Amino acid sequence: SYYIALAGLPLASARSPLLQFLRYRGKINIQRPKEPHYERARVIAVTQPKYPEPPKAQTCFQSRAQRMGTQLENPYNAIVAREVRNWLDHSRLVAVFHLNSINADEIFRVRVQLHQKNMHLKSYGRKIIGQAVTGTAYEAIMPLFHSNYCIVFSPNEQQIGALLRITRKVPQMILMGGIVESKLLSRNELMDFSKMPSLQVAQAQLVQTLNQAAGNVVQQLQAHQCNLVKVLDVHAKGEASSTEEAT
Is 97 in contact with 152 (CB distance < 8 Å)? Predict the structure, then answer.
């Protein structure tokens, strides 16, 4: 028939299109886009808009002291510096600790334990410490205050043992040095000082040594006399026994 004849014609066969669009490119990275071509990058750089910078006030970049031409001194710093000087003058034991990262609760517990032993934990600024010790005998301790630190004051130098026992449980507090009876000591010297006996015990040991030496001198001086008395006593007893036998 007619439809069967048309089915045999070449125009009725299915053919694929001559032009087919395919996309082989992956996803576009928005966060890290690909660098443009050199020519395009140059055009983008040339066409970048340039906005004039707003005028800046010169006084914004100067400190208040420079603008006024004078150095401002806070009178409260002088009061605190006098307080630090008073602590240094009336404390027979001063220990300086380097303070690592520590929370407020831990440092409060340490402060309470030290207060129970009649020791006081303080912390001041380096400028205040410098104002307190400049021109005094304590000026040699300034190199210990370059970082975060704390100071422990005690009126009794024999409390060094209790201080070390308390701070040994707090690894954030590192002993750097201290002052004992107006003498600057290092960490090792403070450790050795804590092992020494108290002044009363040392005085008792000295008295015992002096008495023992005096007793040895007296014993040595009387040694010959005692030996002579013993020899004469033996000789007298020997003569008395010989006379008794003769009778």
Answer: yes
d(CA 81, CA 101): 26
Instruction: Give the count of alpha carbons within 13 A of 144, CB side only.
Output: 27
- pLDDT at residue number 4: 46
How far apart, in Å, are the Cα atoms of 3 and each of 10, 11, 12, 170, 175?
Answer: 14, 13, 11, 102, 108
State residue 223 phi and psi, 5-degree precision: -65, -45
Contact 85/132 with Cβ under 8 angstroms? yes
Strand partners, 183: 180
| The two structure tokens encoding residue 50 | 């340039």
User: What would the pLDDT profile of 116-155 be if each residue is shown by its tens digit?
Assistant: 988 999 888 888 888 888 888 888 888 888 878 889 999 8
Q: Greatest CA span in the chain, whole angstroms?
A: 189
Taking the CA atoms of 190, 195, 198 and 204 in sequence, report the sign of the dihedral they define: negative
The DSSP H or E segment spanning 130 is helix 126-133
pTM exceeding the 0.90 threshold for the entire prediction: no
Distance CA 144, CA 234 (A): 75
